[in-house]
Design goal:
The chain is mainly alpha-helical. The protein is 42% helix and 4% strand. The longest helix has 17 residues, at 16-32. The chain binds FE(III)-(4-mesoporphyrinone).
């Protein structure tokens, strides 16, 4: 018995084909496990990849996807990470099947896989993240607070090294999934197809009229036409702020432009702070399932 895929010939060095097998196993599990939320674990897996990465601080080089420290309390208990246990648990059988992959590579690969499988752009990906221990947990407060506005968005994403255009492109991922009152306190999906990656988030932001929802929960907004959709205060900030709004308009008009710019910025997000051996031009492009 050889640990972690090692063999008598030496340590196991996975190739692109091995990572494609991991991709395929995640895609298959996504297809089989439809008895969850709107029918897919994809959105919560995207959120896991982002919350693992979004702790990055460019000044100190701490945080980011390299480490997967959300496996441990206190990081797993940070309010912003509520509900992500569903995503981490979903991936445990995959980790058991491919014990050689690190959690931090697995979580980011699962995010890339989910975006592709839900009809989004290809997300080129490279391995190289290592799991760190509990001492590397980041302090609470690095992930954004949805109750705030444009200044906060620029503070938090500026700390990671993103500019205005990149911030808006990223937030288009809110086409996927929903808010849960027992996790963040907010409630509802952003659009009518929360398991399909699209530019609908931007179209709705510009085409709909958004009113403050009348309820006992935290301030959120609802669409005038159906009162079934929601926007967070940070989402509405994208149309209040002139510099942000110009990108919202571009992405609402042109889905291809959104897909291209989103892919680039999501790749950047999941690579923040990772000391890769694989060069950028050698990133893997995974084949999506049929
Ligand atoms: Fe989210 N996000 N996000 N987000 N997010 C939620 C859900 C998802 C913010 C807040 C929330 C990004 C940025 C920001 C996804 C993906 C991304 C929820 C609801 C909140 C409150 C959680 C719940 O109750 O279950 C804020 C304040 C952000 C900065 C402005 C990223 C760009 C959009 C970086 C990103 O990729 C996804 C997917 C979900 C849906 C999860 C689900 O379980 O369906």
């Amino acid at each position: 018995f050889y640990l972690n895929g090692a063999s008598p010939k030496g340590p196991f060095v996975p190739t692109q084909a091995d990572y494609q097998k991991v991709y395929d196993a995640i895609a298959l599990r996504l297809q089989n496990e439809t008895d969850y939320d709107d029918g897919s674990y994809g959105p919560v897996l995207v959120r896991l990849a982002w919350h693992a990465s979004g702790t990055y601080d460019k000044e100190t080089g701490t945080g980011g996807s390299n480490g997967s420290t959300m496996r441990f309390a206190p990081e797993s208990d940070h309010g912003a990470n509520a509900g992500l246990k569903h995503a981490r648990d979903f991936l445990e059988p995959i980790k058991a099947q491919f014990p050689w992959i690190t959690y931090s590579d697995l979580w980011t690969l699962a995010g890339a896989c989910s975006i592709q499988e839900l009809g989004g752009p290809t997300i080129p990906w490279r391995p190289g993240r290592e799991d760190k221990d509990v001492a590397a947990c980041t302090p609470d407060g690095r992930l954004p607070d949805a109750a705030q506005g444009q200044r906060h968005i620029r503070d938090v994403f500026g700390r990671m090294g993103f500019d205005d255009r990149e911030m808006v492109a990223l937030i288009g991922a809110h086409a996927l999934g929903r808010a849960h009152s027992d996790r963040s306190g907010f409630d509802g999906p952003w659009d009518f197809s929360p398991t399909v990656f699209s530019n609908e988030f931007f179209k709705l932001l510009v085409d709909e009229k958004w009113n403050q929802k009348k309820w006992n929960g935290p301030t959120q907004f609802t669409d005038k036409t159906t009162s079934t959709l929601m926007m967070l205060p940070t989402d509405i900030a994208l149309i209040k702020d002139k510099a942000f709004k110009q990108h919202v308009d571009r992405y609402a008009k042109d889905s291809d432009v959104f897909f291209k710019e989103f892919s680039d910025v999501f790749v950047k997000l999941i690579e923040l702070g990772v000391p890769f051996q694989v060069k950028p031009e050698d990133r893997f492009v995974f084949k999506a399932s049929e």
